[in-house]
Amino acid sequence: MKPAPYSDLTPDRSLDALASVGLRPDGRLLGLNSYENRVYQVWMEEGPPLVVKFYRPERWSDAQILEEHAFAQELADREIPVVAPLVIADGTLHTFEGFRFTVFPRRGGRSPELEDRKTLEWIGRFISRIHAVGATRPFRERPALDIDSHGTEPRDWLLASGLIPQDILAAWSSAAALALDGVQRCYERAGNVAVLRLHGDCHGGNILWTDEGPHFVDFDDARTGPAVQDLWMLLSGDRASMARQLLDVLAGYEDFCDFDRRELCLIEALRTLRLIHYSAWIARRWDDPAFPAAFPWFGTQRYWQDRILELKEQIGLMDEPPLYI
Questions:
Q1: So where are the chain's domains?
Q2: Which of 59, 115, 126, 307 qualifies as a FRET site for 214, CA 20 to 30 Å off?
Q3: Rounded distance, CA 149 to CA 291, Å?
Q4: 266, 169 in Cβ contact below 8 A?
């Protein structure tokens, strides 16, 4: 049986990893909220606490991680408030006893008030500054967020995994196929929209707010994709509420970047791709004890029935006209 990916990452090993690059932790560790990686706040013998991220084995290549680091540093160099990794021992990516890790400065903050119009406008300006830099050159190592990577491939993986109950497999397969057909139609309606380097996972949990404004803390999902990918997850509620929220975001966004309204056709398509990808993401990490503990309902009959209903709802939404703003 394959060992759990972090089974050997003990607290002592985590502290020894930091010591291996010349840091001097005082022995205190606090686990931070992350399922994909292992992230800890670490107190130091001298100076403020730091944050260390141990990357999930086999998810990204070294080149892909370093490209994420370079993008974050490029943004920081433009005085955009993101948390870039620290350069320690002449690098940002380190290895200790088989675990790759990176150290960040600790930056605190609170969740943004996404119901507040001025907050949404400020976040829109922030994202547009990221996109202005992201559009200057492409990622060469990081993959794209597209129908294949977040739809077709995870759908096919789930169908072959044996994790979907047999008596519901055909229904889920049919719903997923119809949903992906709907995604394809949305992309066709949008046409040839531009793609750029993105944050990729731009929801409220990855934005921290201080009196000076917002900052992003996690570029782990940075990919190439359409600009609207970094906008739609800020929207919630009914259609009228989402339209108003999007107008508020774009009021700030268009201070720095134009927004192609054709991308509005992709909002429900991108939401659909995220839903399919999310089920595969949990399934692929089921050998990590953190996942059964966090998602005890995953894999049950009820879970897959709910996913079928979810996809059917998305099929209907994708055939409606896009948000009008």
A1: 11-105, 117-318
A2: 59
A3: 22
A4: no
CATH architecture of the domain 117-318 equals Orthogonal Bundle (1.10)
Give the fold, CATH level 3, of 11-105.
Phosphorylase Kinase; domain 1 (3.30.200)
Distance of CA 307 to the CA centre of its chain: 20
Helix (H, G, I), strand (E, B) or coil at 21: coil
Nearest Cα neighbor of 316 from 270, 272, 276, 261 is: 272
> Closest Cα to residue 195, out of 220, 221, 228?
228
165-203 exposure pattern, b = at least 16 Cβ within 10 A, e = fewer: eeeeeebbeebbeebbebbeebbeebeeeebbbbbbbbe
Catalytic, out of 12, 90, 181, 201: 201
Mean pLDDT score of the chain? 95
Look up residue 270 and give its amino acid: L
Q: Is 156 a catalytic residue?
A: no
Task: List, in sequence order, every residue forming a beta bridge with 50; answer none if it has no partner.
Answer: 42, 105
Q: Any catalytic annotation for residue 230? A: no
- pLDDT grade, residue 16 (50/70/90)? very high
Convert the pLDDT of each residue in 258-311 to its tens digit.
Answer: 999 999 999 999 999 999 999 999 999 999 999 999 999 999 999 999 999 999
- Considering 218, 220, 230, 288, which one is annotated as catalytic? 218
